[in-house]
Amino acid sequence: MTATRKIIESCVSKAVRWTLLFAIAWPIWKIAPVYAAALRFKFAVSEVCKTGATARLAPHEIRDDILFKAKQLDLPIRQRNIEVRIQHPHVSAVVKYEVPIELGPRQIVLNFHAAAEEMPLVNVVGGEEHLPNL
After folding, report:
1. pLDDT digits (tens, 9 = 90+) for 4-42
2. pLDDT tens digit sequence for 26-36
3. How many Å apart are CA 85 and CA 93, to the nearest integer?
4. Edge to edge, what strands does the sheet with 106-118 contain?
5. Which residues contact 46 (CB under 8 A, 6 or more apart)?
6. Distance between CA atoms of 108 and 99, rounded to whole angstroms?
7. What pTM does this model have?
8. Which residue from 115, 103, 134 is spatially nearest to 49, judged by alpha carbons?
9. Fewer CB within 10 Å, N or C, the chain?
């Protein structure tokens, strides 16, 4: 084997490795932030439900808070994607949404479902605060 051939094979091998690395890293680079935002949003929905149950907010106020959190995380969520139910003392919310991701010439759509059901942090009875009975 000549020295030139070894150099060429080495360069081709490096090019193949870099191409494979790029082919794996590029989708991860595009998809990972979406999953991270979805996880933060799931925690936010739970927190909004807990706040809504404690403050006895109306369904539209809870929905508005959820939309605000979605906007902060740059998630494509609309009011029609949010279902809020209040069955005193429980507040629950379900949010179903899709996030399209461009991967070069292809587009994939990731489907997410964030749900939470919470009780108030404290109950007020006769002007006094009590911890909820679990």
Report:
1. 777 777 766 777 777 777 777 777 888 999 999 999 999
2. 778 889 999 99
3. 6
4. 82-87, 90-103, 106-118
5. 116, 118
6. 8
7. 0.78
8. 115
9. C
